[in-house]
C-alpha cells in the first residue's frame, strides 16, 4: 500500500530540513542531543492528547537501591475503582525516550477508563548499558505485583506493553514470567507489542527496503545497538534478541502491531510466527502505509485513532 499521504508530507518536510542543514540524522548526533530532539517531536506528532486523565508521579525502587521515575495514568472518575493495568515501556532504542516523549501514548491507552497505565522510566544507554533496562523492567513489574493493590490496581490483571525497544522489554518480561518465575513474580494476562526489536544480531530484507527516509533508519538502529550492547556478543542474548530464545513455550496472548514501512517489519513477522509455533494466541496486524513510531502520530494522520480503538477492543476480550 502507498505511504499514508499525510505522513508522506511530514517525511518530506523532515527531509527538506536535513537537506537544508537544519537537522541531522539521529545517528550523527550525541545521545544527549538526540534525546532532546526526540522529546520535542512529541509536541509535533501528537499535540492534543486526551486531557481528562489523572496523572500521578511515582517512584519505583530498583535492585541496586535507585529510584525510577514513573507515571500512573487513570481516566478521571476512576480513581476509586480497582482497575486492570497496562505496564507500558517507552521506545527509543534503549538510548532515547522518556515519560514525556510517550505521554500521549499512555494517555490514549488510559482514555477509555478500562485500564490504568503504569509507565516506568527505565535507565538509558550508553550511561546504563545492557542489562540495565531489562533489570529495571523486571524490578518495575515485581514492584507492581507487590504494591499494585495499594494504588487501586489489580496485579492479577496486567498487560505488558511497549513500542519498539519498549516492546522488546515487554517480550522479555512475558518470557521471564514463564521461563524464569524465580525472577519474575508478576504473571501477565496479555501482551501489547508495537513494532518490537526482535533480533539485534542479524539484518533482514526490510532493513534494506526501508533503510532511509521512513523515520527510523537502519543506521540509527545500529547506533542504538552499539550504545546499548557495546559488546557485540550481547546481541546474541535472548534478552536483546527474543527471536533467539531457546525452549520457548506458550506465553500470555499477544497483540502484535507492525508498521509496513519499517526496517523492523520482517523480524516482527518472524517473532509473531515464533509465538504462534509455541501455541501462544497471537493477533497480528500490519498497519499499512505507516512507519515506525506510528503510535505517537495522532496529530499527523487520522488513521491512528482507529489503531487505538482496535487495541481497546482487543483488551476488552483479554
UniProtKB/TrEMBL annotation:
Keywords: Hydrolase. One of its GO terms (molecular function) is hydrolase activity. InterPro entries: AB_hydrolase_3 (IPR013094), GDXG_lipolytic_enzyme (IPR050300), Lipase_GDXG_HIS_AS (IPR002168), Lipase_GDXG_put_SER_AS (IPR033140). The active site is at residue 164. Residues 86-295 form the Alpha/beta hydrolase fold-3 domain. Belongs to the 'GDXG' lipolytic enzyme family. PANTHER family: AB HYDROLASE SUPERFAMILY PROTEIN C4A8.06C, ALPHA_BETA HYDROLASE FOLD-3 DOMAIN-CONTAINING PROTEIN-RELATED. This is Alpha/beta hydrolase. The lineage of its organism: Bacteria, Pseudomonadati, Pseudomonadota, Gammaproteobacteria, Pseudomonadales.
Amino acid at each position: 500500500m502507498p505511504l499514508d499521504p499525510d505522513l508522506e508530507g511530514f517525511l518530506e518536510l523532515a527531509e527538506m530540513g536535513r537537506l537544508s542543514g537544519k537537522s541531522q540524522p539521529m545517528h550523527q548526533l550525541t545521545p544527549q542531543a538526540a534525546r532532546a530532539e526526540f522529546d520535542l517531536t512529541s509536541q509535533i506528532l501528537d499535540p492534543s492528547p486526551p486531557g481528562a486523565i489523572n496523572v500521578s508521579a511515582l517512584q519505583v525502587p530498583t535492585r541496586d537501591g535507585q529510584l525510577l521515575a514513573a507515571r500512573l495514568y487513570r481516566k478521571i472518575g476512576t480513581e476509586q475503582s480497582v482497575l486492570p493495568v497496562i505496564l507500558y515501556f517507552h521506545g527509543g532504542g534503549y538510548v532515547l525516550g522518556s515519560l514525556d516523549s510517550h505521554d500521549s501514548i499512555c494517555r490514549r491507552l488510559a482514555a477509555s477508563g478500562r485500564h490504568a497505565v503504569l509507565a516506568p522510566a527505565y535507565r538509558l544507554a550508553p550511561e546504563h548499558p545492557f542489562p540495565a533496562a531489562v533489570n529495571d523492567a523486571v524490578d518495575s513489574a515485581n514492584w507492581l505485583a507487590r504494591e499494585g493493590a495499594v494504588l487501586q490496581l489489580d496485579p492479577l490483571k496486567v498487560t505488558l506493553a511497549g513500542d519498539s525497544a519498549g516492546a522488546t522489554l515487554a517480550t522479555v518480561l512475558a518470557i521471564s514470567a514463564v521461563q524464569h518465575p524465580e525472577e519474575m513474580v508478576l504473571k501477565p494476562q496479555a501482551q501489547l507489542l508495537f513494532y518490537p526489536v526482535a533480533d539485534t544480531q542479524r539484518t533482514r530484507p526490510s532493513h534494506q527496503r526501508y533503510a532511509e527516509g521512513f523515520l527510523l533508519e537502519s543506521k540509527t538502529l545500529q547506533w542504538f545497538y552499539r550504545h546499548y550492547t557495546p559488546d557485540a556478543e550481547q546481541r546474541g542474548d535472548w534478552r536483546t534478541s527474543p527471536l533467539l530464545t531457546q525452549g520457548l513455550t506458550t506465553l500470555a496472548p499477544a497483540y502484535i502491531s507492525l508498521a509496513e514501512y519499517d526496517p523492523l517489519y520482517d523480524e516482527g513477522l518472524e517473532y509473531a510466527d515464533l509465538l504462534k509455533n509455541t501455541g501462544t494466541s497471537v493477533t497480528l496486524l500490519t498497519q499499512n502505509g505507516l512507519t515506525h513510531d506510528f503510535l505517537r502520530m495522532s496529530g499527523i494522520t487520522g488513521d491512528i485513532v482507529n489503531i487505538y480503538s482496535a487495541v481497546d477492543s482487543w483488551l476488552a476480550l483479554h
